[in-house]
Amino acid sequence: MHSAAEQVLAGLDPEQRTAVTAPAGPVCVLAGAGTGKTRAVTSRIAHRALTGAISPRHVLAVTFTARAAAEMRARLTALGVAGVQARTFHAAALRQMRYFAPRLLHGRELPELLDSKVRLVTMAATRAGLRTDRAAARDLAGEIEWAKSSLVEPGEYVVAAAKAQRETPHEPAKVAEVFTAYETVKRANGVIDFEDLLRAAVWGIEEHPDVAEQIRAQYRHFVVDEYQDVNPLQQRLLDAWLGGRDDLTVVGDASQTIYSFTGATSAYLVDFPRRHRGAVVVRLVRDYRSTPQVVGLANAVIAQARGTEARLRLELVGQRPTGPEPELRIFTDEPAEAAAVAARCRQLVAAGTPAREIAVLFRTNAQSEAYEEALTEVGVPYVVQGAERFFERVEVRQAMVALRAATRSIPGETPLPAAVVEALAGVGWAPDTPPAGGAARERWEALAALVQLAEEYAATPPVLPIGEAATVERPVTLTDFTEELHRRAAQQHVPTVEGVTLASLHSAKGLEWDAVFLVGLAEGTLPTGYAKTAEQVEEERRLLYVGITRARQSLWLSYASARSPGGRNRRPSRFLPQLDRSGGTERAGGGGTVRRGERRRNLVVSCRICGATLLAGADRKLGRCPTCPSDVDEELLERLRDWRQRVAGTQRVPAYVVFTDATLTALAERRPERPEELIAIAGIGPRKLGLYGESVLALVGGATVDAVCPEESLENPS
């Protein structure tokens, strides 16, 4: 074998090597988070090229982001292979269509490509008799994109939307009407959208044999990354490129399917072996990104998954050294949660963790404001990933203008929350059920966040000096609140080069950090209250799984019992493992805020042998998985049983009342030497420590049962 090809194989684990050296033909790489999928697929391309099996210029590697394509090209160059085309679906189609347009369009160039549908959708909605703002137009555009990506025509939309159980921004027939009008307006303007681009590429290949022959002669070997995110239109284009050939390598993880609302489906990944008979299927499960503790929690969360994607569920095996246990924190309200997260971020930065290696992840972009404010208050810089900062959002800027104007028309004695609701009515917001559609709902939630801010601000009115010696409290006014909002906006508009990342779980996909905070893990937020079907709920579970697997070293999970101080009580997310939530509450400093769970730092118990998260009570007592080897001291276990029998007889209680069999086994395995080690074993609390701790420690230290339980003490237990 060529020495360079041998070097490509060096350092690969057995599963990666299997993927790299698999023969030409269909190969499906099921790659869990952090398992080195990019290394595997680039090494496969490089190995085949360096051994002469393929020519790099005949390879088309398709990714879903330009960043992933650039990373793939860089890795291939580092491996000594140049000339591979690594592009997104749209970039590859655009390149081909620009080349073939004169031939396909009778000498004309490819029409201009729309950057955004919103303007034309707004025009189409007007034709259909709908008045829309930008958020509503974005939601209609999203529905049109879903339909076109799913190969659904305007006349088929109503039936297709019902079958897919879509939550449509308007009545489906009206959406179909806008869809039809959009296509008309688009043609009249002489432009095409991104879905048209892919459809044109499909048409060029399927309907023009000369184009198909030239493209297929150029591209003979295909690699598709993130295959669980392919939609029907992209699959149609891939099939056209292949033209019945089977030199195809796909890489994906069904447990990271989180974009089904856009038309993406894991069905092609799940069905790959059936569609491609004789396909090689390789599972990458060695996680090189996260500690065994993080991996164990991720496995525990996804182990409960149901549905189609669960058929390809992977159980990851952590490869990194042991790390801190994930923390689960419970707070009285969201401001307390945000303040605690910001304080911990400040501690991490002070201890040497770069701010860029810290992320706070949440379900919706509207949740960012509390963390922007909290980080600003403690002086920690931040950047918002994949969205505008809260006070830069169009709807928030419009609302602030409306609030300022309302200070002149709303009576000053009006309670602040009511005044804010009244002012926001001027920009079309009402405190009722949020509208359907993602963008419109996000707009509604952003304005609802302003109402929540008003409620919190009204609950803590400022103390204003009168004269020199006296102070009085007065209710805050709408003017006070608008000034507070402008103060916050000014603080949060300070540009930062590097900072803690604030991101939604969707925009965090494909990224990773040393420290990750997963916040707002309450029912109604994750899963969102808009997840109605079993499939939608399962996608919410996968969102949490994606969030967990972003963490390399430390992981914090938290939720607030209420949105605002004194608010309605909420339950923790159903996706969190059923952890031991016993323990007291601790009164924190700073105004006496009660923060539940401050003593619950080791709720997530990991196996001391393999690092997996332990959920069963008996396993948590033992401190290991039932399948991991036991290192029990049999002689000590026998002495403990003898001692327990004597104590139970003396106290006239069943033996299990003293200690259960699982606790005795844990004692014989873990052999505690100090009281703090003894009480760390599940099943031994302060009471039993006081009753039996001295005797147990003596037995562990080698004392005999007779020495610990002399005859006179048995005869006179008092």
Automatic annotation (TrEMBL):
PROSITE patterns: HRDC (PS50967), UVRD_HELICASE_ATP_BIND (PS51198), UVRD_HELICASE_CTER (PS51217)
Record protein name field: DNA 3'-5' helicase
EC code: 5.6.2.4
Binding site for ATP: A31, G32, A33, G34, T35, G36, K37, T38
UvrD-like helicase C-terminal domain ranges (all copies): 292-553
Domain HRDC: 630-710
GO biological process annotation, one example: recombinational repair
A Pfam family recorded for this sequence: UvrD-helicase
EC supergroup of this enzyme: isomerase
Homology family: Belongs to the helicase family. UvrD subfamily.
Lineage per the UniProt record: Bacteria, Bacillati, Actinomycetota, Actinomycetes, Micromonosporales
An annotated Gene Ontology molecular function: ATP hydrolysis activity
CDD domains, per database record: DEXQc_UvrD, SF1_C_UvrD
Residue ranges of domain UvrD-like helicase ATP-binding in the record: 10-291
Annotated catalysed reactions: ATP + H2O = ADP + phosphate + H(+); Couples ATP hydrolysis with the unwinding of duplex DNA by translocating in the 3'-5' direction
Entry-linked SMART domains: HRDC
Key words of the record: ATP-binding, Helicase, Hydrolase, Isomerase, Nucleotide-binding
SUPFAM superfamilies recorded: HRDC-like (SSF47819), P-loop containing nucleoside triphosphate hydrolases (SSF52540)
GO CC entries: cytosol; DNA helicase complex
Sequence intervals crossing the membrane: none
